[in-house]
Every structure is written in structure tokens, then in C-alpha cells.
Amino acid sequence: MESRANNSRKCKNLRPMMRTAGILCGTAGLTFFLIPSFAMAQEGVGRPVLIPGSAAVAPSARLAPAKPANGAVDPSTYIISPEDNIQVTVWKEPAISGPVLVRPDGMISVSLVGDLKAAGQTPTALAQQITERLKKYIQDPDVLVGILAVHPKQIFLLGEVQHVGPVIMTPDMTILQAISAAGGLTPFANSKHLYILRTAQGKQQRIPFDYKKAIKDGNQQGVSLLPGDTVVVP
Fold first, then answer.
1. Phi and psi for 90 in degrees, rounded to 5?
2. Does residue 188 share a domain with residue 223?
3. What is the dihedral of CA 61, 65, 71, 73, to 10 degrees?
4. Which CATH number does the domain housing residue 145 bear?
5. Are 198 and 177 contacting, i.e. CB atoms less than 8 angstroms apart?
6. How much is the pLDDT for 153?
7. Cα separation, 71 vs 217, whole angstroms
8. Which residue from 48, 97, 189, 196 could staple onto 207, CB 3.0 to 4.6 Å apart?
9. Do residues 84 and 151 lie in contact, with contact meaning Cβ atoms separated by under 8 Å?
10. Which of 185, 142, 182 minimizes the C-alpha distance to 160?
């Protein structure tokens, strides 16, 4: 009897701590039980709720662009090209969301939005355009555009280079690098009078470039390459 009374007094003193730890206390001694390893939900409107194996998520959380991992494209700087595969996600609108292939003409088709130009824009800018068009049909639309697959970007070299034809572009490729990828100039090349042919909005531009000057002092003359450019070496 004395032992049972002592146990009862001990349990009374330890009960607050033991309740948290998952221990039941009775007059006959201590009994252990298991508490499931998930976090307890917090009550109250607008407060975070913890679910098993996750961090706090606010009920009002909206779509937020993820930071690009190593090797991934940055949605604020990447320029969409024809035949890229993109993902359009509209918050709480699965019927509108989904993968979209950029057509060879640079256009895409999105439900409710219709056709719009995707090539030449960043994913961030395209998402803003889709958002503006959806405001006619959806209150406060929240849109994200991501890149699922990047179509290899090419430029073309013609004339007095060792290997005429397409060259796969690398990020920030210069004209000097493109010529090097084509094996360099031939001995007959007019290195001071290169030019780039570029088609923009249905019109062809001719951009001069002095290869000899670029080799001499690294001056790129404000000329950068875009996918689809043709470098002509006379």
C-alpha cells in the first residue's frame, strides 16, 4: 500500500512533463505509449498549419518562383526560343495550366488567352502578359511560366570559315567564339568586313563586324549573337 501511495505522489509531480513525453502514469507505475511523429496543427484563422514531414505553410500562400538550381535557367533572364517546351501554371486553375510547346513561329496557345508571342521573351515577362489577358476572366490571376526543356539554339556560319554550317550556341557566345567553333577563318577571309544577318519582325538586318579589331583589342563593337543569326565571312 505504501509503495502504491508513493507511486501516486510521484506521478502527480511528474504528470505535466510526462504528458508531453507520451507517458501515462498510474498508481501501479509508469506506462509508456507512442505519440505519432507529426506536428500538431495550430488553431486559428490565418495561422500556419504544420503537416507531417513539412514546414509551416500559410493558407494564403500563392505561387512563388523557385530559385534556379545549378544548370537551370533563370526565368528573369532566359530568352524563350521556338520549340522550347514551357510550363504555364495558373494558381487554382488546372484546366488552364499545363505544358506548352513553343511553335516554330514563336507563338503559343493558352486556354482563355488564345495565341501570343512567347519567343524573344523571358518566362517572367510572358507570365505577366498571360496574367493581364486572364484578368478578363479570372479575378486576381497568379501565373508562373517555367522552362521544361530547352531546344538547342543555333547560329550559322557562311563564307570563308573552315566548317560552314550551324554551330550550337553556348551562353553568351561571342562572334570570335562562334568562328573558333567553326574551325577559324580560311587564309582568304576578309576579316575586317564580316557581317551578321539577323531577321527581326520579318525584316532582315545587316550588322557589320570587324574581326581583326576584335582580335587586336577585344572590342566586340557592341555586337552580340542571337539564336538564328548568320555570320557571313566574305
1. -115, 125
2. yes
3. 160
4. 3.30.1950.10
5. no
6. 84
7. 31
8. 196
9. yes
10. 185
Domain that holds residue 217: 154-233
Q: Which of 95, 116, 149 is the last residue of a domain?
A: 149
Confidence grade of residue 36 (pLDDT, cut at 50, 70, 90): very low
Sign of CA dihedral 74, 76, 225, 155: positive
Cα(176)–Cα(173) distance, rounded to whole angstroms?
8
225: domain CATH number is 3.10.560.10
Question: Based on the domain organization, do 160 and 217 belong to the same domain?
Answer: yes
Extract the C-alpha cell encoding 102.
Answer: 513553343
How many domains does the chain contain in total? Answer: 3
111 contact partners, CB below 8 Å, separation of at least 6: 95, 96
Is 128 a member of any domain?
yes
The amino acid at 130: I
The answer to the question of residue 78 being in a domain is no
Determine the 3-state secondary structure of 184 from DSSP: coil
Cell numbers representing residue 3 in the block: 509503495
C-alpha distances in Å from residue 222, one per residue of 68, 73, 189, 214: 28, 24, 22, 11
Tell me if 196 sits within 8 A of 178, measured CB to CB: no
Q: Which of 99, 130, 149 is where one domain is finished? A: 149
List pLDDT tens digits, range 173-222: 999 999 999 999 999 999 999 999 998 777 889 999 999 989 988 888 88
pTM for the structure as a whole = 0.50
Other CB atoms within 10 Å distance of the CB of residue 14: 14
